[in-house]
Amino acid sequence: MVSFALHGIGVSGGIAIGRAQLVSHATLEVAHYALTQQQVPAEIERFGAAVAEVRQELEGLHGSMTSGDAPGEFSAFLDVHSMILNDPTLSETPKRIIAEQRCNAEWALTVQMGVLVDQFEQIDDPYLRERKADVVQVGERVLKRLMGRPGVLPAPGAEEQTILVAHDLSPADVIQFKHHHFGGFLTDLGGITSHTAIVARSLNVPAVVATHNARQLIRDGEMLIVDGGSHVVIVNPDRAVLAEYRLRQNELELARQKLKRLRSKPAETIDGIRVGLHANIELPEDIEQALANGAEGIGLFRSEFLFLDRDGLPSEDEQFEAFRKVAQGMQGKPVTIRTFDLGADKQREGLAGLTRVAPNPALGLRAVRFCLAEPRLFLTQLRAILRASHYGNVRILIPMLASVSEIDQTLVLIARAKESLREQGEPFNPEIVVGGMIEIPAAVLAMGAFLKRLDFLSIGTNDLIQYTLAVDRADETVSHLYDPLHPAVIKLIAMAIAGANKAHVPIAVCGEMAGELQLTRLLLGIGLREYSMHPSHLLRVKQRVLQSDVAAGMAVIERIRRADDPAKLVALLDRLNA
Ligand code: PEP
Ligand code: MG
Q1: Least confident of 252-256, 278-282, 307-311, 349-353
Q2: Tens-place pLDDT, residues 438-448
Q3: Could you say which of 231, 234, 350, 400 is the most buried, measured as most Cβ atoms within 10 Å of its Cβ?
Q4: 294 vs 266: CA distance, rounded Å
Q5: How far is the CA of 300 from the centre of ligand 2 (A)?
Q6: Residue 169: its pLDDT value, please?
């Protein structure tokens, strides 16, 4: 077997070693879990039973056709479906897959459907090629039966050896992985701060995106090493390489365990500056990880992720329950709920009518713009957040603000939501604080008006970089231009922090830059006192804060602030971090 390496962008550190599992969008809809050897026979039986039920169903339909006046093509069509079902490639091969891969029946069937569809696509004859749709329809009938009678529970931990290899994944696809346990994953496409990458990070498994052609080069079952920290994937490593990586994997784990000791230590620099370290979350269950890593609050709850993987819009009560869970779970610590940031790379099929396909989605009806265009939806969310504010220290955060009018309109809607709750006698915190995200250069350049109207600010560096440099954060073809250390980006961040500090308005950074160790001291030096990041970065950043002396670095910071030459800026940063 040929051994080779693929380079991409590591979006989540650590090392994963396991077998490749190629996936497509279709297969992501289906649960995937591993079985123990003892569970395999029952699973094969479950598959057989589902096939038998569909066979009966088709026969029943056929019977009702012949007696009635249905068109002849219809019964011919049912014959084709029965033939497909009875073909061993559909009714038997999945059983072999269940046994060989020790996976659940739904997954085995979906994998086999993928193989069959690929085969049909290669056929020259257009009529036969079209039969692909019939195969999918029959397969889906069986799938429906299987899903209606769930099988055994996944064997805990048994999936750790699987590494997913996909061409591309949407944030909604990735969020589904939260319920599975994969060792790691890689994709052909994706940028470092794309929302796909951000959710990937929250899965806490090593991941590399933008590998360009991994999906083509890697075969199912091949051995892979995913080294997220070094942005590399090694396919079919030899024994020496494998042994080396296992050693490194152990070392990383030991270092992680050691960091745990810092969990309840306050984040304070050598010269006595206290820093707040908060967590970014996507789902209520993420607070467990946030607390385990010593988060002092939730600095960013990306509320839209709650609903990305399902149909339809969430009701007020559903949202309220999710927010209340977080508010109560954080036991009085601040919980910053960002209102829906839908649009751009977070499109939802179920919302297609609402998030219109725009010619330039990142500049279109996204985030607060979308919410203001759909005031009913916005009001529902605001009411849900306000109701949750009765149960903890909840704060509202508005994404992607560019203009004062957006703040004013939002504040009017918040007042209206409060009024309606008051009328209904629903309890909420009338003093709830409202903050805005600084993600667009215009917001920094005209920040005075923001400071007057908002209680706190949070810099979303992921978008601030995208909108300052005109580089789509999700497009890997321009990812080399996506540069957090661009002097313009550093100047804008420094300006925002200085402006807010001067006005005594609390300001945080909640973009990915907050979790970058290389930038901890720089941000401290330019006056940042609150960071919000993925929970897995919290303890490393705390360690860096504990080892920093802000006063001692000020001379270098001043030079970084003024630097226009990128190379010089990087050299100065190295000096700061030495
Ligand atoms: C950001 O833009 O930096 C941010 C924190 O928000 P998101 O990544 O969800 O756009
Ligand atoms: Mg953003």
Answers
A1: 349-353
A2: 999 999 999 99
A3: 400
A4: 9
A5: 10
A6: 76
Q: Is the CB of 540 under 6 A from ligand 1?
A: no
Could you tell me which CATH number the domain at 263-577 has?
A: 3.20.20.60
Instruction: Judge if the beta carbon of residue 342 lies within 6 A of ligand 1.
Output: no
Residue 459 alpha carbon, nearest atom of ligand 1 = 3
Residue 345 in contact with ligand 1 by CB distance below 6 A:
no
Give bridge partners of residue 278 from the DSSP assignment: 532
| pTM exceeding the 0.85 threshold for the entire prediction | no
The pLDDT assigned to 157 comes to 41
Residues near ligand 2 ion, CB 5 Å cutoff:
439, 460, 463
CA of 449 to the centre of ligand 2 (A): 20
Helix (H, G, I), strand (E, B) or coil at 36: coil
Model confidence pLDDT, tens digit, residues 528-554: 999 999 999 999 999 999 999 999 999
Q: Which residue has the tokens 């919980």?
A: 335
Neighbours of 422 (CB within 10 A): 12
User: Which is the catalytic residue, given 32, 81, 181, 195?
Assistant: 195
**What was the pLDDT predicted at 73?**
61
CB 336 less than 6 A from any atom of ligand 1: no
User: What pLDDT shows up at residue 147?
Assistant: 73
Q: What CATH superfamily is the domain 31-146?
A: PtsI, HPr-binding domain (1.10.274.10)
pLDDT at residue number 348: 54
Instruction: 368-377: list long-range contacts, CB under 8 Å, 24+ apart.
Output: 368/339, 368/398, 368/399, 368/400, 368/401, 368/406, 368/410, 369/343, 369/400, 369/406, 370/340, 370/342, 370/343, 371/339, 371/340, 371/410, 372/406, 372/409, 372/410, 372/413, 375/413, 377/313, 377/340
Q: Assess whether 510 carries a catalytic annotation.
A: yes
Contact predicate 372/406, CB 8 Å: yes
**Ligand 1 center to residue 461 CA distance, Å?**
7
| Residue 541 CA to ligand 1 centre (angstroms) | 19
Residue 81: active-site member? no
Q: Which of 510, 516, 518, 508 is nearest to 569 (CA)?
A: 518
Q: Which of 341, 369, 492 to mutate to test the pocket of ligand 1 (most atoms within 8 A of CB)?
A: 341
Ligand 1 pocket member 286 (CB < 6 A): no
Res 463 pLDDT > 70: yes
Domain range list for the chain = 31-146, 263-577
Residue 115 confidence class, pLDDT cut points 50, 70, 90: confident
Catalytic residue among 231, 510, 534, 537: 510
**Dihedral sign for Cα atoms in the order 60, 61, 64, 66:** negative
